[in-house]
Amino acid sequence: MPSKPKISKRFGKVLRRARDAILPTSHPSSPHAPALARTSTANIPNDAPGVERNRSQDAILSPPHPSSQRSSNLLGTNPTEKVRKTPGVVGNRSQDTILPTSRTSSQQSSSHLAPNTSDKLKNAWGVAWKGLETALRLLEKGAAACPPLQSTVGGLVACLNLTQAVAGNREEYEKLAMELTSMANTLVPYVTNLVAEDVNGSVARIMESIKAELTHIGQQQDRGKITRIVEANQDQGDVIQRYRRIKSLFRQLQSDVSLRTWQDTRKLRETALLKDMSPVDDARYNSSYSTTIKRRGCTAETREKILEDLKGWVVDPKGAKVYWMNGMAGTGKTTIGYSLCEWLEENRRLGGNYFCSRISPLCRDVSNVVPTLAYQLAQYSSAFRSALYKVLEGKPEASKLNVKGQFEKLVQEPMQAVKTAMPEGVVVVIDALDECDDSYAFRLFLETLLKLAADLPIKFFVTSRPEPAIREKMLAPGYSPSILHLHDVEESIVEADIKKYLTEALGSMSPSPSPNEVERLAKLAGKLFIYAATAVRYIHPGDLGVNSSARLRTVLGMVSGSTKQHDELNGLYTTILSAAVDPKRLEEQEVNDILLTLWTVVCAKEPMTVQTLASLLRLTEEQVRFALQPLRSILHVQEGVQGLVSPFHASFPDYLFDKRRSGEFHCETTRHSEILADGCFDLMKAQLKFNICKLESSFVFDEDVLELQERIEKSISAALSYACRYWGEHLRQGNFPVTVHERLVEFLTHRLLFWMEVLNLERRMAIGGEILRQVQHWLPKESHIDTRKQVADAEAFVTRFAAGACTRSTPHIYISGLPFCPRSSSVRENYWGHTRGLIDVRGSAVEQWPSAAIGIWKTDSKVMSVAFSPDGTRIVSGGGDDDEGTIRVWDARTGDTVAGSFKGHTDWVRSVAFSLEGTRIVSGSDDETIRVWDACTGNTVAGPFKGHTNAVWSVAFSPDGTRIVSGSDDETIRVWDARTGDTVAGPFKGHTSLVRSVTFSPDGTRIASGSYDQTIRVWDACTGGTVAGPFKGHTDWVSSVAFSPDGICIVSGSYDETIRVWDARTGDTVAGPFKGHTNTVWSVAFSLDGTRIVSGSDDQTIRVWDARTGDTVAGPFEGHTLGVESVTFSPDSTRIVSGSYDQTIRVWDARTGNTIAGPFKGHTNSVWSVAFSPDGTRIVSGSSDKTIQVWDAHTGNTIAGPFKGHTSLVRSVAFSPDGMRIVSGSYDETIRVWDARTGGTVTGPFKGHAGSVNSVAFSPDGARIVSGSDDQTIRVWDARTGDTVAGPFKGHTNSVWSVAFSPNGTHIVSGSDDKTIRVWDARTGNTITGPFKGHTGSVRSVAFSPDGTRIVSGSYHETVRVWDARTGDTAAGPFKGHAGCVNSVAFSPDGTRIVSGSFDETIRVWDSHTGNTIAGPFEGHTDSVTSVAFSPDGTCIVSGSYDQTIRIWDVHSDILSMENFTFEQDGWITAHNVLFFWISPTFVPSCPILVTHLLSVLKARLSLTIAAIFPLARHGLSVISPN
Fold first, then answer.
1. How many whole angstroms separate alpha carbon 720 and alpha carbon 729?
2. CA separation, residue 695 to residues 702, 835, 905, 1514 (Å)
3. Alpha-carbon separation of residue 642 from 280, 594, 613, 1077 (angstroms)
4. Strand-pair partners of 855
5. What separation in angstroms does the CA of 238 have from each of 169, 180, 216, 222?
6. Burial 1153-1182, CB ≥16 within 10 A → b, else e
7. Residues contacting 845, CB < 8 A, separation 6+
8. CA nearest to 1006, candidates 986, 991, 990, 1023
9. φ and ψ at residue 274, rounded to 5 degrees
10. Which residues, listed in sequence order, are joined to residue 1149 by a DSSP beta bridge?
11. Phi-psi map region of 1436: left, alpha, beta (phi>0 left; psi -120 to 50 alpha)
12. Positive or negative, the Cα torsion across 379, 383, 386, 391?
């Protein structure tokens, strides 16, 4: 065995070689350095892994590094320099690292091997480590385009010999070497694509970590361990731990680079998707905006202990995933956060940062936080970027979800996918979370963050004030963030830091403040850095010439020593303001200007420019700049024309708004809001005008207008933009002076549409409806009825416009919006007279438009219960499907899912309700339990509460939120503690059937219940004693009860289809029964003021009633296609939400009853038969109400009727060929002929049948009438005299349901209850063909094809068949699709299509030859469809139904394409990509005739010039005069 000195000398050389390659302290002057540079060769066998035989190693291994290169680049290599051959080293291979010859290697190895170690083990050891070196050499060469990575790999190669010396032949090292070899080989194909620019963020962090490990290995020599390295196991363990760490880091590098995207096209798509998330650049800690507001880091040598602790948390792998630093206003949170970001960025650990700011609309919007952080993480880590790209490809709208959904999709999901690629110690910083303006959203964000952060490979640093909402989440059980209360830091430490800051900041004063003055100033500041910063700006502003020494004396002259939290800061602010508005040196007007400007800055909804301030306050810019001059220590004034003005710190507005703190400088928000609202109206009056951006054409989308953004910036000033967006908020926050009310009326009458132009051009149309709702709240409820109507009409118009694709073209506010505005609307009244050239759309259907619910949200389950949150911003729904309960929370404006589905119930959820504060939701389920949920996250807060022995049908919170009442199928009521689930009272017994509905009285002392035992009871909420009842009056189940807001009355809805109002004390009927619904009333509720009642019914409609008289105030609201299970008013009673079995939730305007455009109404019972007039302009209907009516086919207006004369239901009606007469057949066994215009009887009644007349029809020449009857016969009558011309034709063995003439009038076809069809000679009654057999049920309807060669039939057994009229053979069918009896069939005029109507409430259109469904099923009727017919031109279908209505349907989508016109799915009517008109897609299914008429008008205008069609096209939108 060689002596130790020899070994030490040999290893010392190796260590120095490694150290020189990686340590900045290695000196090139070392005697070993030049030797190493000259003799760097190695012995790599030709058969080593990854090396081809007989090839020069120059092709594989990097050449050596010159010593000079090593001194300047820690791990750098020089790939160009050649090396010399060195004696004692195997030559002919240019090498980069010293490796011993075979002999030396053998000797060296033997010093570590036990005497019995086999040669086989030695060889295995050597192969493994030499294979690793070869793999690393290949990797080093492959990274040639990326020097930082190449140098890191070179440094690792340089350390291999040291490891070899330490390792001996341990199998553990061999395994480690093989693992590293595998990873190096895997990385080779990826690193060839890397360039230096790619090595940033996460990759840079990984490489720095590898260098750190190599540094530790190289430093072994400096610690004097050369000898012990060979001997000590603990040192061997240290080295191997380092290599394990390197292996782990290489695995992260492998994950990162393997997940990168290299294709240029994908990179472009990736960049576009990331940008579409709309990250907020201003929110970065060091953005240009941060300079604007003078955000900065800590002064040198201050906050050192806090920052060191934070750094320790960052690097501690066991540190909490969330660190919350909180502190009172002014304690320096943002400054510390800034400094932490600087350190993190320097150390490549800053994954992302978001600095919230109350004065920036973008930076205070919590919905921007997650997309911005995700975007920054994608810039930090290429692996994360690739994973995020995959998420966005599948769900590009992920950034538009609520914050919980955003976090899950944009952070959690991609982060989990690249967990192994993220380096340790990466931190995301979120500063000033309390400055976000949506407390609900940031609570949801915090909840989500705390819940999901534990499983993410990154950490989060959050700062905020200790606001209750944030504190509650941070301290909630189950979470354990690190917490620092900044205001609790020892005062002496803070004071020392403040002194350092003051010394530096005031050091340029002449003379500089003395140490004593600095100390006194620091004492005044206490723990508030904002005090110190404000004092510095006041005493020594850099940009103003002031007497700093005098100002310092002023501040130091303040009385100190107060222990109250704000007193010192209050004193400073008061001192500054007293100096600024000194009446001794200023004129009164100047003082007023300063205060007016100051109060406007703090009341502004966003920072304003000087120009905007001047415009709003009716001052000159010079006056505003003068007013701002003495306020610059408390207000930040950005330089430049567009420079914004804002408070330096949030503590200053707090001071001004609190009269106890600010005294004479107090800003009275109410009064100043009136001033600002008045200023907004002034601005809009002066600057709003028609076609403000001079758009030349209505034929293109806004996005296609050249240089539109430049036009907007030129035409819409910043001041006008502010006024248009915020006038409503300022109005709502003020009082109700007469002058401002007059300004509002003037605005609505003359400038509403111009205001809409600005909102739409700036893509802010969605806020229009909300602004007008704010105005509704501001208006007194008991007066100014006309104004309230104007605002309501304006809101309806704006909301409907904003909801559709019409917003894509601003001119269509006028072109498409106004024509569909009801004539009863004040908007139309105010503006229609100023227009010319608009299409005048008329009819009752238009009067019901806007005719869709404000919102229609599709769910995946039946909706059993809905409720508004107390603030009206959210809606909760409960329901179920497939034996699973679902609960979701929706945004009440957009319909986006805010939270849910909440998981827990194992059966349908029958009832849901919000707590009074809106933070909790209670639910009752068929699984017999009650649960309480967090409304933000869906976490179970309490429950399940068990006690009921059957389904829970109804639940409600007590007004104070401490109790919950429930009603059950077990016939009992229970009261529970809302937090613990303990039974507080009950069970209350008395009902003899299931309890369907329960509710607390407004004072919480009573409970009302409604039961299937047909009664209502009132109970003492504490004892369960009966207070009143049972109230009796309903004749069927009571399904819903609710107290009036004053607790005096109770409203109930019942299975008996009525609503009743009761005296809650006596049970006397106060009002009702209210009648109108035609099926069970499932849900009722009072409006906020108790004057209205809303009801939802199984008849699929919602109605609003006058609570005193029972008159219908609004409705019926139609649109649901199944029963309405739940309805309620919004808290302000302007909206109604409804939930239905049809799996939708709809929101309605409670004042106008905007619904889907309704059917024609007039009949009071089932409609049995309908038919078009020959010219298609009229429709005739016959009904069970014994009457006939004639309707305008375009508008739905009644033209004639009701025609009365029949003494039983009218089963069949038809027009004569000339359209002048109508024939009817009735269950009274007679036929009558009527004058189609007057309703006068022309002929009849014709008598002869001995049973009901089921079907009548005119012959093609109008001279004869055929009839079929329950008496099993067919008769032919003279249409003028009523004489029998032929018949009775006998052959059928049961009722004849349908008859029709052939097109030439020679034959008659009939269908019967005997399941057959027959064809008769119309003159003799002889059977020509038949009976046709094939149907397995009654034949309800028959008709000839237009050419008379085929017959169509509809059957009770749900099928349609087509027959050869000559032979009776089946020509096509049976057509299957209906789920009920086919009552009516008819051919289209060209014979290519067949329409059918069925008991399943639908209409279908079939290909008459193939039986394929061409269109439908058309849904809308709420009961069986009894009759259908094509219009003469084949474009539409008319249908009649048991639901007492007639509807007109579009036959197929091509109907809306008339020659050059195309009807797009989003509602646009276009021709050759030119926009002509927009109509809501929800309107089309209900009124296709009107749409077709509209297209006809457009078609007629095609022959005119474009300018004639719409004058705006060439005359600058001159469709409306600008007066």
1. 15
2. 9, 17, 56, 10
3. 19, 20, 12, 60
4. 1147
5. 16, 18, 10, 15
6. bbbbbbbbebbeebbbbbbbbeebbbbbbb
7. 851, 1157, 1158, 1195, 1196, 1486, 1487, 1490
8. 1023
9. -65, -40
10. 1135
11. beta
12. negative
User: What span, in angstroms and rounded, lies between the C-alpha atoms of 67 and 26?
Assistant: 10
DSSP per residue, 308-369: HHHHHHHH-TTS-SEEEEE--TTSSHHHHHHHHHHHHHHTT-EEEEEE--TT-TTTT-GGGH
How far is C-alpha 809 from the chain's CA centre? 23
DSSP state letter for 462:
E
H or E, element range at 952:
strand 952-957
Residue with tokens 């490694």: 18
Given a contact cutoff of 8 angstroms between Cβ atoms, the answer to whether 962 and 931 are in contact is no
Mean pLDDT by 10 residues, the chain (1523 residues): 37 40 37 32 35 34 34 34 34 34 36 44 60 78 73 75 55 70 72 58 72 72 45 57 74 65 57 86 89 81 87 91 81 89 92 89 89 93 89 87 89 91 90 82 84 91 82 78 71 69 81 84 71 77 73 70 55 80 84 91 89 91 88 77 76 84 88 92 93 85 88 92 93 83 91 94 87 84 80 86 83 85 85 76 50 57 82 84 80 74 88 89 93 86 91 93 93 92 91 94 94 94 90 93 94 94 92 91 91 92 90 83 86 82 78 38 73 81 87 74 89 91 93 90 91 93 94 93 91 93 94 94 90 91 93 93 92 90 91 91 88 79 86 81 77 42 72 72 52 53 30 32 33
From the number of C-beta atoms within 10 Å of its C-beta (0-12, 13-18, 19+), residue 932 rates as: buried
Tell me the one-letter amino acid at 1160.
F
3-state secondary structure of 395: coil
d(CA 123, CA 634): 77
Tokens of 490: 């020892």
Token duo for residue 168: 């001996």
pLDDT in tens, 798-812: 887 887 788 888 998
The two structure tokens encoding residue 1364: 């050869």
| Residue 279 in tokens | 């990250």
Q: CA 984, CA 185: separation in Å to the nearest integer?
A: 70
Burial 389-404 (b: 16+ CB within 10 A, else e): bbbbeeeeebbbbbbb
CA–CA separation, 1173 and 1158 (whole Å) = 22
Distance (Å, rounded) from C-alpha 168 to C-alpha 1452? Answer: 84
Confirm if 357 and 432 have CB atoms less than 8 A apart: yes
Amino acid occupying residue 1086? F
C-alpha triplet 1508, 1510, 1514: angle, nearest 5°: 80
Cα–Cα distance measured from residue 626 to residue 604, given in angstroms and rounded to the nearest whole number: 19
CA–CA gap between residue 1293 and residue 1274 (Å, rounded): 12
Residues 6+ apart with CB under 8 A from 1491: 1450, 1456, 1463, 1479, 1483, 1484
Could you give the count of Cα atoms lying within 13 Å of 348 in the half-sphere of its Cβ? 17
Q: The sheet that has 963-968: what strands, in order across it? A: 952-957, 963-968, 972-977, 983-989
At 1315 the three-state DSSP class reads coil
1174: its two tokens: 């020959």
State the number of CA atoms in the 13 A half-sphere of 493 facing the CB. Answer: 11
In one letter, which amino acid is 1337? G
Contact 188, 142 (CB under 8 A): yes
Which residues are within 8 A (CB) of 1203 and not within 5 positions of it... i.e. 6 or more apart? 1187, 1188, 1189, 1222, 1224, 1234, 1239
Give the residues across from 1395 on adjacent strands.
1386, 1405
Contact 1120, 1142 (CB under 8 A): yes
